[in-house]
Amino acid sequence: MVLRDSDPAEAGGYRIEDRLGSGGMGVVYLARSASGRRLAVKVVHAQYADDDEFRARFRREVAAARQVSGAFTAPVVDADADAPRPWMATLYIPGSDLGTHIRDNGPLPPPRLRELAAGLAEAIRDIHRAGVVHRDLKPANVMLADDGPRVIDFGISRATEFAASDVLTQTGRVMGTPPFMSPEQFSAPQDVGPAADIFSLGAVVAFAASGRGPFDSPSPYETAIRVVEGAPELDDVPAELLPFIRLCLEKEPKSRPTADELLRLLKDGDWPTTDGAPTPADTGRSRRRTRWWPAVAAGTLALAAAATTTVALTGDDSAPGNLPAGWKAWHGQAKDPSPDKDPMGPSSLFNRCAASGTSLVCAGDEIMATRFALADGRNTWARPVDPTADDIGSSSSGGGTIIGARDDRVYVYGSDDRPVDNEEAPNPTRYTIQSLDAETGKVIWKTVTADGEEGTEPSSDQGGSTAVPAGVITVYGKTGRKLALLGADDGKVRWQRPLPDPGTNYCVLTGAAKQAYLLCGKYTTDTIQATTVSQLDPATGEPRWTVKIKGDSSIVGQHDGRLVLVNVIGTRRTLTLINASSHVVTTVKLSETEPESATPTLLGGTLYFTLGNGAIRAVDPATGRQSWESNSGVEQSGPPIASRTHLYLASPSGRLAALNRTTGKVEGTLDGRDDGVVDGSPTGAPLTLVGDALYVPYGLRSVYTVDVRDL
Fold first, then answer.
1. How far apart are CA 246 and CA 211, in angstroms?
2. Is the pLDDT of residue 320 over 70?
3. What are the start and end residues of each CATH 2.130.10.10 domain in the chain?
4. Which residues contact 166 (CB under 8 A, 6 or more apart)?
């Protein structure tokens, strides 16, 4: 990366030569010592330099890195946690990190996979022998050196002997990178031990074998569900490494081997027999009430949320036209509204944004909502999901989303968790839905939807709410077993009604063509037997009509008066169409089957299936025939957005492609931004198109805009 004018010429007396990368807490530079040795120097962002508790965290990172310096890590050469800008210098390791290597070159061949597995097991063994738990083993923290993998970045590690009394990790926050975290990091973060690194090791090796994590999902919430309760996706893992990975991915920490045991098993090849997949953990009563759906229901949620976003926030066809008044190309990062004395800082993309008036309002990564001016990107206000300082964190779903936009207002939700004296007791949470003035951030109304230990988060990304012209229909009540309509003007509850048979149904809310739908899947322990689809009357909450479909199904959108549904789990061979007026159900056979991993998006009468490798296919939902297939060159793209002539896709780092809607030909691209670093391997966020101005969320709580005519 090119050095910027704001970058220092030296750090700690070491001459800086290049910028290697940046993250939420600091920048890493390539530097050179007086003797000519190349070093990687991590320099903390200025905004954290005056924070005493952050300095304490940084000292701990330095101490942990020094403890484990050896053949399998990057040895610490020098550090100063008391400098005006704290810094740490480690030996520079030539080569790329594992995540970058896999993205550029594809999965590793079996011999290299075995070497990686053994090298990481050796590294974790040495880290644990030094009395340290890494807690954030992921592809970005594995450097591929010539002599084997090296594990780096001990920013959230902790010493095992101090785990119970470490006040810096007793906040109850979930720390780590969701696709590579262990179940206990979500359910009991204060009790995380060495076994968590073993689970992450298995997930990293699976990623190296397939190019995707075993629990990858469109949202952090769904990823967490799959980690805690779902079976890993290991279809592309070589058979010889399946026993290794399955042992690592056991749900119960006590069932996982130690690093020493893994090395012995790799050497001897005498693997214990398994039933083919880790056994899901008993769910029991969680400390925070969340929707820990089975994996099949989690997939339904993701597609339901995608459908709501496409229809409620962007529409099927964004009309071309003039740019917003005073528009210029800009990029910016949101200010941090956290009230905590020790804020965690940004760690992910926004979940979604919406244009309203002269504002672009975005939410996610613990921000309830923040405004960028459409014209010049000024970030004028921001509100946290959890407004209470120094409690146990905020929501379980990645913190915030835009439920809908209406008349210069946006609907968002808050999640205020409060600690209790009894550590074994669940934490009470007050969930609210709020209507905000998009221009000023002023709260127009705020309604509590649940307050207690068992309420349900009213996030549209989880199927917990959907916007309609009359207001917001949301899950409601102490246990989240009711639906309610909050009026658009004042947020008052217009009606309440119980959810149908919550003991055997998983129900989610979604929207299409300004109508609200309730999808309820009747389930057994691991299968949804049938799905009922009900259109809700916003005046009463009663179903206007209900149809029943065999198996699992989710609404993707509506076109030409018919709802389009796809199955969530398994290969897609057919589409289901429901006439919204006559309620007649028809089945359309796809001319080409679509894999479960393909994400469907309905835009302008065409159903697009996007895959993580950049492939995209256009299908006519009326006939099931594939119109074209292309490769956008954009990996891990979020849902596309369409103008009348082009389709646009973007990656988490902001890489952008414009495809001809008729032919699928790539007619314009834009490289990702060098400050677009994100943790883990998420998918891109939904895009927003206002006239010819395209707004792209990327990186860490950041957005940029481009005139699509320049692509």
1. 17
2. no
3. 295-710
4. 158, 159
- How far apart CA 517 and CA 544 sit, in angstroms, is 10
Residues in Cβ contact with 400 at an 8 Å cutoff, skipping those fewer than 6 apart: 351, 363, 364, 365, 366, 367, 368, 369, 385, 412, 413
Under 8 Å between Cβ of 688 and 355? yes
If you search the block for the tokens 């119970």, which residue do you land on?
164
C-alpha 215/C-alpha 222 separation (Å) is 9
Kindly state the percentage of the chain with pLDDT values over 90. Answer: 45
Tell me where in the chain the CATH 1.10.510.10 domain(s) lie: 109-284
Query: Which tokens go with 237?
Result: 């893992």
Q: Which two tokens stand for residue 616?
A: 């995209």
pTM of full prediction above 0.85 = no
Residue whose entry in the numeric block shows the structure tokens 């916003």: 538
Cα angle for residues 82, 129, 156 (degrees, 5° grid):
40
3-state secondary structure of 190: helix
Which residue type sits at 421? D
Question: Which token pair is 610?
Answer: 């996007």
The set of residues, in sequence order, having a beta carbon less than 8 Å from that of 594 and lying 6+ positions away, is 571, 572, 600, 609, 617, 619
Please enumerate in sequence order all residues whose Cβ is within 8 A of that of 287, keeping only pairs 6 or more positions apart, or say none: 187, 188, 425, 426, 427
The whole-angstrom separation of Cα 567 and Cα 222 is 17
pLDDT in tens, 61-118: 777 777 776 667 888 888 888 888 888 888 888 888 898 899 888 899 988 999 999 9
Class of domain 295-710: mainly beta
Given a contact cutoff of 8 angstroms between Cβ atoms, the answer to whether 610 and 640 are in contact is yes
Rounded Cα distance between 39 and 33, Å, is 7
Query: What gap in Å lies between CA 138 and CA 181, rounded to an integer?
Result: 9
Rounded to an integer, what distance in angstroms lies between the CA atom of residue 467 and that of residue 406? 9
CA atoms within 13 A on the CB side of 685: 32
Q: How far is 396 from 211, CA to CA, in rounded Å? A: 26
CATH fold label, 109-284: Transferase(Phosphotransferase); domain 1 (1.10.510)
Whether the CB-CB separation of 150 and 178 falls below 8 Å is answered with no
Contact criterion met (CB below 8 Å) for 39 and 89 = yes
Residues counted in the chain: 711
Q: Tell how strand 76-80 and strand 87-91 pair up.
A: antiparallel
Helix, strand, or coil (residue 18): strand
Cα(225)–Cα(449) distance, rounded to whole angstroms? 23
Residue entry with tokens 């959890």: 386
Element (H, E) at 225: helix 220-229
Strand order in the sheet with 331-333: 331-333, 702-707, 693-698, 688-690
